[in-house]
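Limitations

Structures in this collection are predictions, not experimental determinations, and the ligand pose is part of the prediction. Treat each record accordingly. The example that follows, with magnesium ion as the small molecule, is included so readers can see exactly what is and is not provided: the inputs are given verbatim, and the output is the predicted complex.
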Amino acid sequence: MERLARIIAHVDMDAFYAAIEVRDHPRYRGFPVVVGAPPSARGVVAAASYEARRYGIRSAMPSREARARCPQAIFLPVDMEKYRAVSAQLFEILETFTPRIEPLSIDEAFLDLTGCPVPGGGARQEASRADGPGAAEDPGLAIGRAIKARIRAALDLPASIGVAPNKFLAKLASELAKPDGLRRIGPEEVQEVLDPLPVTFLWGVGEETRRRLGSMGITTIGALRRAPTSVLRASLGFAAEHLAALSRGIDDRPVEAGARAKSVGREVTFAHDTRDPEILRRTLASLAEEVARGLRGQGLRGQTVTLKVRYGDFRTVTRRATLDAPTDTGQDLYRAAEWMWSRIPERGRAIRLLGVSASRLGRSAQLDLFGGGRRDRADRVMDAINTRFGDGAVRPGRLADAEDPDRSHPAAGVGQGAGSASAVRRR
Ligand SMILES: [Mg+2]
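Predicted complex:
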């Protein structure tokens, strides 16, 4: 496919967590809303509504500082389960437009719309540049508009969408469109849009590169474009060609559709902080089983198991164990999680959230090379852990629970939506 004909969209939800909370609590609409740790705790801001951003509140800022900047701000706790569920709905919507989707985060993705039908545009109108001057609305823009409308209708949330011939420009376009905007950067206006922007708009220009360019008198993308590549190379090394190309709006990277999941995880926030070991173990078993089901559903196995524990005061600890062989069974994951659990200090403290995830993912083999059933594999993994950490490190523990989905379901003591926690999206 000819490169210039590509139509790439970048879809990015606006203040995602905060927008979801405002949607679900309409009385907060129009107010500065901060999602994250409470200001009395040591945690940080996860998302800030645009009203809160006017006070200079940004994500990753300590909540205490956010409160100092805006004492009337409304602080809400992070509800990751809910945001993941909304993310899953978002990606389902995107998939109705094209299968060529590269997820970047929970609320952000590239879409390759090249050749996709324009909704309501009739069978013959496709997203290509063949329409020529005088044609109706640009097809990329028309699809972008339809995506925005469907997100609004189905999720009641704002999204910003950029449409351009490549990923770099599409992401830039959505950034310039924010909030709740739609913007296309066409091939004919690339230089006009890029030249006045600060060099920090280029991918890969961090503080150090910005400083080096600044010392050469280069602060805008236009100035960078006009600088001889040899001069750039002397200061920036191998990054020079990359930046020179971006400054001209050139970016050949394909949309990596089907980019594989990096991890599959489930977590549960308890309705009330709990220290009941029985509830905690049952929850671990249930989470392990759900993660295993998620792995099997995608034909994957994971080799690294991560246990996440968040205490009542939001302090979070994670532990990681790597198995000697990848697995997709609940028993294996539970054994590893339980083993890590048994070694976490402060086990008597009240717990707010538990999470289990599997990473270092690989495709399941068609046939189990080692033969035997699940039970054998579970035993093999247990052997492996024991070998690694010393004999007796892993005991069968509450495996009976893990094998019985009804009994292991952590209904008692688990907060809303425990069963609807969805997979960690591909990043
Ligand atoms: Mg976003």
